[in-house]
Each structure stands twice: as C-alpha cells, then as structure tokens.
C-alpha cells in the first residue's frame, strides 16, 4: 500500500490514477479511521476535523454529502443529520502518505456543535487562551429535542 | 479535563482563560499525541497535518517555530531541520473538544517532503485520482546527503 503513494510522489501534475486503487492503498489507522479536515471551499476557513472510515469516505464521494464516523456514538454520522447544518463536498484530497484527507466543503451555517462557524475558537495566546468567536446560532436551537 | 472545554463552550468572545489550565485540559490520545493542521496564514492553503505531543506544543508556543513529534522517527521534529523549509507560527487554536490543533503558519517554500507546497495533492475525482501540483523544489535537492 505504501508503495502506491511512494509512486505518486514522482507523478506529474494532472496525471490520473484509478481511484479504487488509490482508495485501497489509503492508510486507515488501527481503528480503521482516517482524520478528515473540513475547509470552507471559498473562504478557506478550516471548520473542523473529524474521522472517516472507508464506508464513510465511500458514501461521501458517492453522495457529495459529507459523512463521518462518530467515535463517541460508534456509527456513521451524516453531518447535519440532527442539527440540519450539512456539509456539501466540493473536492477531496489525500495527502502524500495517504493517511489524511482534506475536504473542501460548502458548510451550511455553523460547523461546530456549539453553534460557532468553526470548531477552532480557543486561541493559545501569550496572555492566555482566548475565545475567538461567538455562536451564530444558540446550540439549544440547533439540537432541538423532539 | 473535558469539563474545562465544556465550560468554554458558553464563554463569550474575547474572554480569556489561563493558558496553562487550558493546555493541561487539552486531550492528547493514548500515544500522547494530538493532530495539528498547518495552514498558511495569508493564503489559507492547508499545507499538512502532523502530530504533536505536549513537549512539541510547548516548544512551538515558546519558540514560535513549529515542532512536531515524528511518529516514524520517535522524536521531536523541528520542521525544516533537515530540509531548511521551516514553519513559523502566527497563531495556534484548539478546537471545541480540545483534541485538535489548528496552526496558522508562515511556511518557507514547500511543506511537503516531495517538494510540493502542500501535502494534499492527490485529488479523489470521479474520473480517477489526479495529481494536483508539481514540486517547487526537487526533493533530492531538499534533502541533500551531507
């Protein structure tokens, strides 16, 4: 598997490879998971990092709607299924080692369960950690009990 | 530890918290590591994802030069120590769960060991996987044997 990505290192720009072979060579960790970074496609804002197994990745590529693996719930997690805040895939790339994904997405509303646009809101500054954003939506509204 | 990040969920924008307490509450995995995403601060390009232990994070925050933990070499990895392609820290943020870092950096030259600017160059497209960039520098030049 590692040989495939080694081969790609010297591959020319715009050269194409069979997608199934690349996905088969991709490296999921001992739990069968791979970190996936979600970036808003137009603003470039990094929204969140979550995990995918092969099934979640296949579904995401097939449907264009981002599906992760929830480690806490132990099941597929179609982003937005309870909050309504979906992620639509614009493009997906593997890194040089084939063990991390970068997803360029179009995120509806907040990506974060706190109601904030991005999950990265705790800045580590010299004078202390600082909260860098407010929720767009009250999380109590985001996850309404039926 | 999880309680600290739970408390931050409702914290107001620009509120400040003791940095040491936040770092102590941050969640490193069973191997003592946390994923760190490096993003070029001005262009927004996501350059790479690597891992940090607490020591690497402390050093990065203290020196402003990004230091990861190399899982393959089992030691601290001061980015650019062999290639010369350093990462200078502009800002660092933890996510809502305190288990992932986003580093906004100023990257000298290529971030990728293949000589490419970004490690994410294997796009998963419908018609196949496609190589999306060429090296800026020949990797044989990047890692010259002494």
TrEMBL record, chains A, B:
Transcription regulation is among the record's keywords: no
Subcellular location: Cytoplasm
SUPFAM superfamilies in UniProt: HisI-like (SSF141734)
Pathway: Amino-acid biosynthesis; L-histidine biosynthesis; L-histidine from 5-phospho-alpha-D-ribose 1-diphosphate: step 3/9
Binding site for Mg(2+): 95, 97, 99
Major localization listed first in the record, in broad terms: cytoplasm
Pfam family, one: PRA-CH
Positions annotated to bind Zn(2+): 96, 112, 119
Keywords: Amino-acid biosynthesis, Cytoplasm, Histidine biosynthesis, Hydrolase, Magnesium, Metal-binding, Zinc
An example molecular function term from Gene Ontology annotations: phosphoribosyl-AMP cyclohydrolase activity
Catalysis performed (reactions): 1-(5-phospho-beta-D-ribosyl)-5'-AMP + H2O = 1-(5-phospho-beta-D-ribosyl)-5-[(5-phospho-beta-D-ribosylamino)methylideneamino]imidazole-4-carboxamide
UniProt-listed Enzyme Commission number(s): 3.5.4.19
Keyword Cell division tagged: no
Functional description taken from the UniProt entry: Catalyzes the hydrolysis of the adenine ring of phosphoribosyl-AMP.
Alphabetical list of PANTHER family matching this protein: HISTIDINE BIOSYNTHESIS BIFUNCTIONAL PROTEIN, HISTIDINE BIOSYNTHESIS BIFUNCTIONAL PROTEIN HIS7
Protein name: Phosphoribosyl-AMP cyclohydrolase
């Amino acid at each position: 598997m590692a040989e495939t990505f080694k081969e790609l290192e010297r591959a020319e720009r715009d050269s194409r490879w069979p997608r199934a072979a690349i996905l088969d060579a991709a490296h999921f960790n001992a739990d069968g998971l791979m970190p996936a970074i979600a970036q808003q496609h137009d603003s470039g804002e990094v929204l969140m990092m979550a995990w995918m197994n092969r099934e979640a990745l296949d579904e995401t590529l097939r449907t264009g709607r981002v599906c992760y693996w929830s480690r806490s719930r132990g099941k597929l997690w179609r982003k937005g299924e309870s909050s309504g805040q979906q992620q639509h895939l614009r493009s997906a790339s593997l890194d040089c080692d084939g063990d991390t994904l970068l997803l360029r997405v179009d995120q509806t509303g907040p990506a974060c369960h706190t109601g904030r646009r991005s999950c990265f809101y705790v800045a580590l500054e010299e004078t202390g950690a600082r909260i860098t954003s407010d929720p767009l939506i009250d999380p109590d509204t985001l996850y309404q009990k039926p």
